[in-house]
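Q: May I have one protein plus its fold?
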Amino acid sequence: MVLCPTASPSGVLLGPNPTWYGSATLTHQGERPDSHFDSGKSPSGEPDPETGPSGEPDPETSKPTGLYHCSLCGKSFTKLQNLRVHERTHRGEKPFNCSQCGKRFTRLENLKQHDRIHRGEKPYHCSHCGKCFRSLGTLTTHERIHTGEMPYHCSHCGESFRWSGSLKTHERTHTQEKPYQCSLCGKRFTELGSLKIHNRIHTGEKPYYCSQCGINFTWLASLKTHERIHTGERSYHCSHCGNSFSGLVNQKQHERVHTGDKPYQCSLCGKSFTQEA
């Protein structure tokens, strides 16, 4: 694993083209020049064993005694400094700003990671596949793909997940929570991604286009099905006769010939059909 240059006594140097965060800047912003809690690191430059690389306390290693509690949300911290950093999220305070684009951040560590976007720097390397990342946290999360680690467990059914976001999305299947709502038709979704895809119905956006003939599609799955027309790929097979099809919908429609299933019914005369149109 390759790390960035370590901090100097009075400031921080970043990457091959150093960006200086001097002590005077931090003093004017109300921070102690020798403070390390924003970056989640100890004075040696290594991740703080209590807060980790994100600068937030690790619930698995935090001490049960001497906790500091946020008066607004009740979240607990083992260090007063970490509580003060956390409280900025409630106040909307972002004292660290990027000199390149002006974007502001609550924590110094977030600014450091952001600066790597401008420099194109990815100092953290996966020891398994060599892929590079801008932050240690992202690398740690990525490595679970190789190790098979799934540290997040559903309290309802026990299913395990690699990422906390996947767990939160899964748990909504138990709670029936759908926090994302379409502003145009009111339909609700469990994931933000699903809402964005749904919005294309209203906007008419078709971001996926065929490189062979130029036809555009609303969904990626529709594009992949269409591209099989050009490649001749027929990966869906009828379980009754072995006939092959380019799309799953076509396979299911065909299989109704064997099963006699007619799921579409005329509202006027009651006659049933195997296909909708």
About this structure: The chain is about 30% helix and 10% strand. The chain has a mean pLDDT of 79.
